[in-house]
Request: fold
Amino acid sequence: MAIIELQGLAKSYRVYQKQEGLLASFRGLLRRQYQEIHAVRCVDLTVQQGEFVAFLGPNGAGKTTTLKLLSGVISPSGGGARVMGHVPWRRENSYRRRFALVMGQKNQLWWDLPAQESFRLHQQIYRIAPESFQRTLDELTDLLNVGSLVRQPVRELSLGERMKMELIAAMLHSPDVLFLDEPTIGLDVVAQHKIQQFLKFYQQQRKITILLTSHYMKDVAALCQRVVIIAEGHIQYDGSLVGIIDRFSGEKVVTLQFAEDQAIDSLDQYGTVLDAQPPKVRLRIGRSEVPKVLAAILNRFTIDDIAVEDPPLEDVIAKAFLQVDDPAGLESHPDRLA
Amino acid sequence: MRRSAHYLQVLLTFARNSLIRDLTFRTNFLLQAFTATSWTLMNIGFYLIIFHHTPSIGPESGWGKYEFFVFLATTWIVNSLLQTFFMPNAHEFSELIRTGNLDFALLKPIDTQFLVSFQRMEWSSLSNVVTGLILLVVGLWHLTTQPDNPLVLTVGVFLLYTFYLLCGVTILYSLMISLAATSIWLGRNQTLYDFWFYITNFSRYPMEIYQRGWGRPLWGFFTFVVPVLLVINVPARILAQPLRPGSSVSLALALFTLVAAVCSLLVSRFVFVKALASYRSASS
Reply:
């Protein structure tokens, strides 16, 4: 069942173009120049119930704007959207009780109070029954391992702890749809991993629908079955994570462990040498060349160990973004884009 | 749960959370209360000096020393209520718009104007309600016990006073929230405190002082266009100069205040909703 449907969704706004200098500032008092920014252009997307979708794209691509449109925070300049049958920007309470938006760079909890007090306020705003509230709170604090911290003022919590509290606040009313805007930004690897584990477990348990934006590919790889790449306001790719590697990377990384006591030379004839620390060497080889190249290497050298891997996801995504930024690149590889 | 009960419950939690926060910084809380009370006491000292020079504000105006005490007490109570409940929120609202944190208010399944109008309260500002009430009691005590023409007060008068006091608060709240909401269009609006200073300067004196010379246009403007002159004048008159034939407070003025309060609230709601439709958030 489709739970999120976007048809030709667009958002543009005017931005004041300030010229440099004091004189230009005075001129700006009388007459101003504006530029039309198209943050989101004609986005079509359908998300089924229970999907965990990653929304990827370079900075300024329109990811957060799309999430804000779907949350009803802002209104579109064109197109339409329905989430669980509701038009988000009508801001109906019946809709607002069924979703949550978590923004990694913003804080909605009362800064000077323990998170517990903000949770209680959420209970009342969302009209959560006391038993249900306590049960959900216990479950969430247990899953995120923050039991005693809920009584500590938010300003005295670490960034990771604060994000866990933000997640709890967002989930107290058991939303059916969750929009996560860079929830692990600025967190250390341990905190990132814990939040990933929590989101994965919670999503599988409750079968909720989640849209996630993140610049950490580990989040995406750990959580999302489906990836949507948005750039310059358009959807450029919609498919699986493996599909991204297939489309945007025609290469493999081959790690070779050479046997001792042999000369290792002229390896660049087989591919690009990424790293050479004999007896270990890493090569980048065209995907279709791998069997032929490996046969040649095995024929010439004694190899103790071989690993053939996809390039790091970050590199593939960066490449995809670069192709999107470069229209010439797009034109030369039109088949690679959705 | 009924809608009104739900909103009341949320309001009480806002009040509770704000008090917990204020009491967390207890020295700041006490200093704020002390500063507000000191200013008020200096204010009364200033008016005592004036009444050493004149028996009343304007001849035949009816604003003698103790009538004016009632007027002054009403000013403090109205201002204090606004500073406790609405001023921190109006100021915060402008900041929420500038920083984009208004996003969170828009996500909540509750009226957004209610949420941004009440979520922060500054309890230390309530100290002037106490000083205002003390001054009110002192003023009324003298007026009701004076040998010539003692004031007669009834429960009805007190109820009417409270009602019109709340009308005054409503008028000022409406102006304040409308001004704060313009930040959505302007991007930044730092005139809130200036506005507060100018407006309260006009509303803190009896209407009679504007009814001579070039004061008349001011009287007209601040009575019928931006009705701040009604805010203190009407409730204070109801108590200190009760409605009676020949009284300066006519029934028309009282009725007009009621209409002005309702219209102000409706206009502020219109401005708020219109402004909110133009909200474009801030970059994250």
Remarks:
- Chain A has a mean pLDDT of 86.
- Residues 2-245 of chain A form a domain with the Rossmann fold fold (CATH 3.40.50.300).
- The longest helix of chain A spans residues 189-206.
- Chain A has two domains: 2-245, 250-309.
